[in-house]
Amino acid sequence: MRTGWRSRLASGTERRALAGRPGLLLAAAGGGLAALAHPPFGVLPGLLGFALALHALDAAPAHRPWRSAFARGWAAGFAYFLVGLWWVAEAFFVDAETYGWMAPFAVVLLPAGLALFWGAAALAYRRLAPESPRRVLVFAALFALAEWLRGHVLTGFPWDLPGEAWKAGSAPSQAAAFLGAYGLSVVTLAIAAAPAALLGPGSRLGKGLAVGAAVLTLAGLWAQGAARLASARPETTNLMVRVVQPDIPQSLKWSPEAFRAIVERHAALTAAPAARRPDVVVWSEAAIPTPIEYVLAPETWTRDRVLGSLKPGQTLLAGVVRQEGPLYYNSLLALRRTEAGFTPLALYDKHRLVPFGEFLPLSELLGRVGFKKLVAVESEFAAGGAPAPIAPEGLPPLQPLICYESLFPGFAAGSGVRPAWIVNVSNDAWFGRTSGPLQHLNIASYRAIEEGLPMVRATPTGVSAFIDPWGRTLAALPRAADGSEGAVLDHALPAPAPPTFYSRWRDLPFWALTLAGLACALGRRRR
Question: Which residues are catalytic?
Fold first, then answer.
């Protein structure tokens, strides 16, 4: 009786001490710390920021629980996304005279909008969480559900999911082969938030069990991942692949004066000598910033230069812009060089387009106040059909992921035949030498882990890489240095691993874990 009375008194004191602005600051500090776990920082103890955010929610004042809970959840989300996404401003300074004024709005409004998902999760937590250490699991389930919604609502933007804080290819990241990035987010949130159980209501035994379970789960993540990596049997195929990284800054990409130099550099790197002639050459997203119909038009110097850089029998996988009537598509084109010219083999059109980059949401409204999309084509890009593997003749079937598409768990599923590899072409030149390209590499590598498939990644300024089916980077080209003339990376294509649990069952583990966490809230209602 006395212990319970003192516990309630201490809890009330904590809640009063954290009422108002100090509680908001604590929540924001927690969100900001959690973001430091992602590249390029890699400060994994920062994940304990989720415990701070949870404690701030538990200490929300009772006289205004809904407003306070939402505000604290939103503050944590705003800080998390601000630290993780500040680099989006770089894209607006590529053409600062035209787009620079939009950068402050992007840096503030994007985190503010994404934080609404966390605010809603905090509101639901305040309504459902039991007054026991089990509330940690309710917190993990609700915030992971908010992250799933963030990845699906209004095209979705699942950048820096909590489950992707682990370095791709590390032992804990291997759980994505079973749980996917969303399921791993549930587990990561539960582990990271567990220390908050020590500060809230509940018995000493319950608090100890909560923290002990988190420690054991963390140990289990490392153990199962280490075992999976130890049992991995990496193999390579006979297919030699060359990735071309021309190191052309985005500020020159759409410059008419630089067009010839862009074509020449791609051609020169494609034809560069090699110890073994590449079977496949991969160019990055929108490698040549002119519709491919004009580049390969008969009797043009561009056609002669591109085809002249290839040897008969070689296949080019090129990120291209193509035009079909008034519509533009962001595509991956597969063509084979022949003695007489070239043969088109396959075409993939990007399905998931980038808001504000390739199309302008609410274009009529935002256009009136001066907002415009960043990519300089006459009209907005059109979306291709549902993603599916392509099978260029003579190559193993492959799943293209064009830039933004590599963010989405399960997107590489395709349909029908399982692909043997993933080709991720991207244009990370928009983000210069900020943390964005490093985060993108880590995120994209999770698609390889989830599917058990190797990935070939081509970007114009880095990081271009070969990634094995366990998410490990086998070889990579560093980000471009000033004055770079570009580089190539030749590597034998890794063989796929056996199909993963996630590749068969998709987000079933995520939903099972989420429902189990939400079930922990039932005890409160029953009492």
Answer: 285, 350, 403
